[in-house]
Amino acid sequence: MSVLFFNQLLGRVRPQRKSSNHRGFTLTELLVSIIIGGLIVTGLMSLVVELMSTETRETARTETQREMQMALDFISTDIREAVYVYDGSCSADEDVDGTGTAVSDNCAGIFNYIPAPNDASVPILAFWKLEALPQAVRNNCSATYEIGGSLVPCISGRMYTLVVYYLSRSNPNNLWQGKARILRYTLPRYSSSGAPVSGYADPTNNTNFASWPLDAEGNNQQDGAPPNNRAVVLVDFVDDRALSDIPELVDAGGASVECPAENTADARVRYVRTPSDSTLERFGFADVRNFYACVKLPEQFTVDSSSDDDAGSAFNQKVILFLRGNAAGKPGITTANEGFMPAIQTQVLNRGVREKKPPTD
Q1: Considering only CA atoms, which of 304, 305, 216 is closest in space to residue 267?
Q2: Do residues 117 and 183 touch, judged by C-beta distance below 8 A?
């Protein structure tokens, strides 16, 4: 009994250990933590995706604007080498500015004599330039000076080539991603193989640049229909909307497409839009002024020595080019409104001197 009593007494003397009650996280706490963490991760991911989307859209716009500038530079170089540039009046054979002094009095309307590459294209700008004869033709110059019954300009080694720029919506087989494209069409005298090209007429033989391809009696000098398969795409992602369908321009009160001194009777300072409004309507591009030009054509290429300081520039044709791209179709740009871009422009002075009279004292 003494042993039992001693054990009971010892048990009372020893300090009592408190039992631990650590139970961990409850299910509710875990669910709340997961939800909060998910919201944070979702927010961060949304921010990253938005930043990446914004970067993609800005990259697409930047690339498109750079492509438009490169295309404009190429066209400018082309025009700088031109000997004659058709204005909107001459190319359509109509008095588009209402002055009654349009050069179209002597024009045949070149857009009536060249083929459209397809049914969804409109001619924008046409001009003549000098190009080197194809190598195949130059090789034959040592043996003969005639090809197809006409003399070959072997001495000069150059030929006149007609260049026409088109705006086209055509997209066979969905090859292109943009709204519209610029096509470059050429009608040279000879092909690369040395054969005469159908539909060509020498603008210096029985006709002139303005009245081409008609002679003084109104006879067509073309020997057939020009080929319509000589157009190549210069640049994609050009805006094809009418100006009235572009919200940014409508909200800004509309875009002005007037050319400098467009409605003045002074031919020396008269610019004419090309193509004309009637040309755009005729080809189904009414009010589409996202690629056009203002062409300054001194009357009869004659400079009056008594004119003012603008006479020096009047000796050559000046062309103001306008081009608006649209990034719709590029990564991150799904609609034309998202792809809207401001128009860019440049001025070009051609270097041709044919049929021009220098100032005299």
Answers
A1: 304
A2: yes
- What is the per-residue pLDDT across 330-352, written as a single tens digit (0 to 9) for each? 988 889 999 999 999 999 988 77
User: Quick one: which H or E segment has residue 162?
Assistant: strand 158-168
Q: Is 320 exposed, middle or buried (0-12, 13-18, 19+ CB in 10 A)?
A: middle
Residues contacting residue 208 through CB under 8 Å, at least 6 positions apart: 106, 355
DSSP states of 170-237: --GGG---SSEEEEEEEE-SB-TTSPBPTT---TTSSS-TTTTTB-TT--B--SSPPPS--EEEEEEE
- The size of the chain, in residues, is 361
Residue 190's pLDDT is what?
93
Task: List the chain domain ranges.
Answer: 46-349
Alpha-carbon distance 16 to 158, whole Å? 116
Q: In the numeric block, which tokens belong to residue 187?
A: 């009608």
Give the span between the Cα atoms of 227 and 294, in whole angstroms: 28
pTM: 0.80
**Pick from 151, 146, 343: nearest CA to 239:** 343
Cβ neighbours for 119, distance < 8 A, ≥ 6 positions apart: 170
- Distance (Å, whole) CA 174 – CA 217: 46
